[in-house]
Each structure stands twice: as C-alpha cells, then as structure tokens.
Amino acid sequence: MITLDIFPDLTKAEVFKKIEDFLTEEGFEVEKIDQTRPWGGFFVLNEKQIQKFKEKFFHEVDLSKEQLQLKLSPKLLLVAPGARLSWQYHFRRAEIWKLIGGDALISKSQNDEQGPATNLIMGETVSLAKGERHRLIGSENWGIVAEIWMHSNPENPSNEEDIVRLEDDYSRS
C-alpha cells in the first residue's frame, strides 16, 4: 500500500509528484503521466514490469504465464476529492482495481442505471467484468487505485477509445 500523506489540501501537482517519487523509489518506470483529466489523472507504467506491478499491488490475483505476456496496461489512477470519472463500460476489456492509497468510492451495475456508491476498501481487489458499468468517485481525500486491464481480444487490445460513457460530469462523449 502507499503510505503517503495525501491530504485534500495538497495541489494536484504536489499529489502527482508524491506518487511519481513513490513509483521511482519502488523501481517502476513511468511511461506516461496524465494530469490533464478533470477528475485527476493517471500514471502508465512500463508493460515489461507487469510481474513486478502484480507482485506489489495484486499478489493475491492469479495470472497465468500466458496472461502475464499479454498487454495488461499497468496503471495508477488518481481521483481528486469529490471528482468522478464517467459512468462507463468497455467492449474489449475487463478491469481489476485496488485502492492502494487515500480513499475513494465505486459505483457499479450490470445495466445503465447507476448503482449506489460504496467505499473502496484499502487493499481489496475489485473485478469489473467486460461490459459492467462502473464509476470511480473521489471521496474526501485523493484516491489512488492500481489498475490492470484484461483485454478480451489480445489481437485487438482495448484502449482509451474503448470507453462508452453513459454519463459524464465534464461533457465528454
């Protein structure tokens, strides 16, 4: 778990710097940092470090040798206090999430009607099936969520265009 003092009064830049420093200290190679998202942003880590990422954040999740050789898109999502990602689902991926720092909520449903928001539990793995509707929601503090994408078709892996937004606070389609 990330034992950082992430408080809601820190600026976005300060939170991202703390997470970047943490990842560097842990020996992770950051491929991309995106602070432009209105809800927070994310860190994309080097795909070649998926085994290390899995051991650090998802040690209890069984992934076969074959799965570990696929593109799993290791990432950390950072959701700002009170912010919400879109109410969304994906055609080409399932996702595995784990709250590793701060606090956050999740809403999920098997249909387009948004389910109730429940607290993510620190260290508890959440599996989101392909097509399952979901939304990450900021609470009173920054939330840091480790994420792995499980692509349903390795020949055509999911990407950011595989987001079907049903509702969005920021008017994105």
Largest sheet: 7 strands, antiparallel
CATH class: Mainly Beta
- How many distinct folded domains? 1
Q: What's the assembly state of these chains?
A: single chain
How many β-strands, per DSSP? 9
Low-confidence stretches: none
> Could you say which overall geometry the principal axes of the C-alpha atoms support?
globular
Give the H and E element order.
HEEHHEEEEEEE
Q: Provide the CATH architecture.
A: Sandwich
Q: Compute the gyration radius: what is it?
A: 15 Å
What is the residue-mean pLDDT, rounded to a whole number? 91
DSSP helical segment count: 3
Find the CATH topology: Jelly Rolls
What portion of the residues fall into strands of 2 or more residues?
35-45%
Structure description:
With 173 residues, the protein is α+β, with helices and mostly antiparallel strands. It has helices at residues 12-25, 50-57, 65-68, and strands at 30-34, 40-45, 75-79, 87-89, 93-109, 117-119, 125-128, 133-151, 164-167. The protein has one domain (12-167): Jelly Rolls (Sandwich). It is built from 3 helices and 9 strands; from the N terminus they run αββααβββββββ. The strands form 2 sheets. Strands 1, 2, 3, 5, 6, 7 and 8 form a 7-stranded antiparallel sheet that branches. β5 and β6 form a beta hairpin. The chain starts with 11 loop residues before the first helix and ends in a 6-residue tail after the last strand.
